[in-house]
Write a structure and sequence with these properties.
Elements (H helix, E strand, L loop, with lengths): L3 E11 L4 E3 H5 L6 H8 L3 E3 L7 H16 L8 E5 L10 H9 L5 E5 L5 H14 L5 E9 L9 H4 L4 E12 L17 E9 L7 E3 L12 E3 L1 H22 L9 E4 L4 H11 L10 H4 L6 H11 L8 E8 L3 E8 L1
Parallel strand pairs: 4-5, 4-6, 11-12
Antiparallel strand pairs: 1-7, 2-3, 6-7, 8-13, 9-10, 12-13
Helix pairs in contact: 3-4, 7-8
Length: about 325
Amino acid sequence: MTMPRSIILGCGSYLPERIVTNDELAQRVDTTDEWIVERTGIRQRHIAEEGQLTSDLALAAAERAIEHAGIDVDDIDLVILATTTPDQTFPSTATKVQAALGMSNGAAFDIQAVCSGFLYGISTADAFIRSGQARTVLLIGAETFSRILDWEDRGTCVLFGDGAGAVVLQASANGADKDNDASAGHNQERGVLSTHLHSDGKLNNLLYVDGGPSSTQTVGHVRMVGREVFRHAVTNLAAVVDEALDANSLEREDITWIVPHQANKRILDSTARKLGVSPDRVVTTVDRHANTSAASIPLALDAAVKDGRIKRGDLLLLEAMGGGLTWGSALVRW
């Protein structure tokens, strides 16, 4: 029996209408547009309106991904929502999206790995599809990160924004979506080639929220040791990129596009230099989206697909690092 491969059929995204510029932030905290751009590359971020929930952003992105994929809602077997900012402690925000979509079958759950959440979600969706437990999976990354920011802390509040992105993955037998070249091998087949996940809980205090139901009974705010996070990010991300390539007997030159978590332009540039990859091959949206945590990779992916940069057959390397610390990569043939 041939094991199915997870093909990404379509993608979609949503950003709140409200845009907050660096100059606007400078009226609230001791910072400037120049300071923020120099250290992060961020020029603006989208912020959810009062009353606009993570599920609202997720639903909008999901509907666009479903339309782009050309499927019906009833085709979906599973909804996975990666988020650090759920609507409620429980039930899962994924079940709210499931209900809003009008799904009458399947299952839904949230997944939490902070900025690495979308990659953890791809790995989970791929496992469900490869094992035959699901045929079509709706995977969403959605955040209202502005709700857990300390707006007096210029070291963190300037970095983050709100948004959502989604993809539809569907089972396809190996070779069924191979390019027409009859000599094309395993790595020329469309879909998720492999995923690689890591975490190190000893580094919890480098990036965390100082609250929670069990500890403080409050939501809390983001706290970060920026210099240490930067150092670990560059080292771990470069390593996990090579891990994915080695697992598939591919070289750095084979990558068409790196679609990274959009944490900080300096991290993106430093990782590219460490890999010897041209910045022109890195999809970058951090300047206008800021860091949207689990939503950042699907937002960047959707932007590059819709503007024509990413084309059928391109080899994509997705990578991220987030609180936990968690990090990972996924190699995908578009």
